[in-house]
Model the fold of this input.
Amino acid sequence: MQITINRPFDAHVHLRKKDLLRDLVKQYDIFDYIVVMGNLTPPIIRGMDAQTYQKEIMDLDPKFTPVMSIMLTADTTPQIILDAFKAGVRVLKFIPCGTSTESNNGIRLVDLPAYYHILKLAEDIGMIFSGHWELIENPRTGNMIRMLDREKHAIPFLEDVIKKFPKLKIIVEHVSTKKMVELVKSAPANVAATITAHHVLIGYSDVFDQKERITNPYLFCKPCVKTIPDQIAVMEAMIGGNPKFFFGSDSAPHPKWDKRGKNPAAGIYTSGFVAASLLCQIFEDCKFLNRLDNFISRSGKNFYNIPQTTKTVTMIKEKWTIPIEICGVVQFMGGRTLDWRVKAIGI
Done:
């Protein structure tokens, strides 16, 4: 048995820099386009930064087209946005300060209204606002919010952005809770969400103990994976056929030594070939294999106004074992045997 799908689109990838970029970039060649996130050290904050990073990527001869982003920081000005858009940048990346890996240059979620003039400009020129929606501390008390609840507490801030900017294309990155899924479903057509494989395949107890101590650092990510009801809601959104939900792997490679110790780096690495195989498995198990093409390719491209192509990927039902690690980076689900694998990538 085999299926042929439109060449996939990944709306959320961390390619990193230097050795990690060089070693892993070809693992994403299954995709037609990928959205490359700009929260790096130093961050990608200007159009010229994005062009330099894009050249660094393309010099490694990938088979995909990178869709570039810049990061919203305290120094972002209207002119920076205009220059970046002129340079081909189509995504304004928002990750609140302190939320996750390489987010220290971001602004706090509670301070986002001070940058509404930037969002208005993004709305006017057609730039997509892609956000990591988590509130990490209570603005009244300063107390840290437990990881399970951070996405939920960010919802009022997102609702205000949706209300204030009815024509701004907004993406909820790596949606992980039932409440956020429900918000995206009820929101206007300009609001969408990406879904990862790991937020439906693993749960809170796979990563944490009852005191929120990390027990499996290789499955630690932000936003963290959630409870069973949340998993079910995200799974239903994934397979449900609603074009507001599409694939964004949030593939975030770290050397394995950075995933150890008391403060492991947040992020799960899912290579493109593994991601496609996992999604085939999920959709077949749920008896919706016919909906895979829209989720992994067409819906995301449509939201990004990327033309559909005749390029394809053929998946074959044939058992194979996921490598445990690739170039010193531990692979999600490494060592597991899957029923589907990539057979051929069309040109």
Notes: The chain has one domain: 8-307. The mean pLDDT is 95. The two ends are 22 Å apart (CA to CA).
